[in-house]
Amino acid sequence: MNHMKQLIFICLSFLFLEGHAQTIIHRDPEIEKMIKEVSADSLQSYIKTLVAFGTRNTLSTQTDAQHGIAAARNWVLGKFNEMAKKSAGRLTSIIDTTTLQPDGKRVDKVLVLGNVMATLQGTDLNDKRLFVISGHLDNMRTSVMDRVGDAPGANDDGSGVAAVIECARVMSTRNFPATIIFVAVSGEEQGLLGASYLSEKAKKGNWNIEAVLNNDIMGSNNSNETNIIDNTKVRVFSEGLPAYETEKNASLIRSLGLENDGKSRQLARYVKEVGERYVDNLQVVMIYRNDRFLRGGDHTPFVQQGFPAVRITEMNENYTRQHQDVRMENNIQYGDLPEFIDFEYLRKNTCMNLSNLANLAKAPSSPVAVKLDVKKLTNTSYLFWQAPSTGKIKGYYILLRETTSPFWQKKIFTTDTEIRLPYSKDNYFFGVQSVNEAGNESLPIVPGVGR
């Protein structure tokens, strides 16, 4: 009888342990060290300087050294050039300009448009991957055509530009196999002009952009009307499938059930997993649309050109501060002022960006020719692939999720380039990542049909 009680106790103990299994989080010590160097004080100083330019409207003066969009561009370039001195020659920066003609919409004069871009060259000359972080330097008052009146633009999008600069400051002292581009684009409020110019240039130049992290309005923790205050959540917007892919492959996508597995959606899943791994007290909330309802951002031109791109934005927007002249009205302070920024929240969101950029740029490239065998009907799933073209690998992660799950649910490690899993392809989606000794994972590849 005592033996039976012991047996029951042991069985119950195993059930308890299984139901309360610990989740072990492995963090790369190098990335952890970078995260600790991100400074809320630095972010605050960047935004204070950006606000001091008075206005950064794209149509504002380009001849004043202290005021307007050109002065702001030159200051950002100067920050990048300072960082370049500590980068052993790997960080280079430019103001990439183009001349636009009046368009009868939001450009009413011949305009020199400039994106401030710093490139941290990868150490592996065979690794052609590019990872981009962006924010938009320009801002607006209530009228997008008002180029004279002061417009602080502390959050929209001083916060995104500050995150870009801080990531460049911390990362430029390190080596990464792949190349990282830090860019403050112009012309967002005038119609995504700077991002469109850059994405078209990248497409024509066959740039191998594997991820664009666009940061726009990501430093405030509260909303008007609903009065929610929360600095523990940040949104990542991603498109399920870009239009060009749907038009070409609609029947195949439908037959495989991959409507939720476009490259930008896969990137968003990656951003969530890695961001939450490295940043405490931050939940990355995936939003299943390209941008906010009927609105747009600088990631969209990249999506339209076929590049994986997502938008990162605070959880609760406050519309008394966006696109508003600074004023007091009905006892409400309007205007995008720096005193409304939560700099600890902005620090966490910057760290989330940095951890993803570092993990991506340190990781091997993705496995090649990933296939799911369909030669015969089976209740197991046989996957096979080829080694990545660049990077030293420890092995591969096989990712699994049920068809109704928004996130990957299991990660199975193997050193082989094939695996047979006791999971039916009818009931699960799969992905394959390369991983190195430090645990840095590539973006996952969803298998194609193989025989």
Descriptors:
4-stranded mixed β-sheet; Aminopeptidase; single chain; 10 helices; 451 residues; alpha/beta; 17 strands; Immunoglobulin-like; 8-stranded mixed β-sheet
Account of the 3D structure:
The chain is an alpha/beta fold and 451 residues long. It has ten helices and 17 strands. The protein has helices spanning 2-19, 29-37, 40-51, 69-84, 158-171, 193-204, 243-256, 263-278, 300-304, 343-362, and strands at residues 91-100, 111-120, 129-136, 179-185, 208-215, 233-237, 283-287, 309-314, 327-329, 332-334, 368-373, 381-386, 395-402, 410-414, 418-421, 428-435, 448-450. Strand 3, helix 5 and strand 4 form a beta-alpha-beta unit. The radius of gyration is 24 Å and the shape is globular.
Q: Assembly type of the shown chains?
A: single chain
Give the CATH class of the largest domain.
Alpha Beta
SSE class: alpha/beta
User: Fraction of residues in helices?
Assistant: 25-40%
How many domains, as an integer?
Answer: 2
What fold name stands as the CATH topology of the largest domain?
A: Aminopeptidase
Assign the CATH superfamily of the largest domain. Answer: Zn peptidases
Radius of gyration: 24 Å
Q: How confident overall, as mean pLDDT?
A: 93
CATH architecture of the largest domain: 3-Layer(aba) Sandwich
Distance between the termini: 56 Å
Widest β-sheet, arrangement of strands: 1-2-4-3-5-8-6-7
Strand content: 15-25%
Q: Secondary-structure element order, as H and E?
A: HHHHEEEHEHEEHHEHEEEHEEEEEEE
Please tally the β strands and state the result.
Answer: 17
Low-confidence stretches: 7-18
Q: Biggest sheet: strands, sense, closure?
A: 8 strands, mixed
Shape: globular
Number of helical segments with 4 or more residues:
10
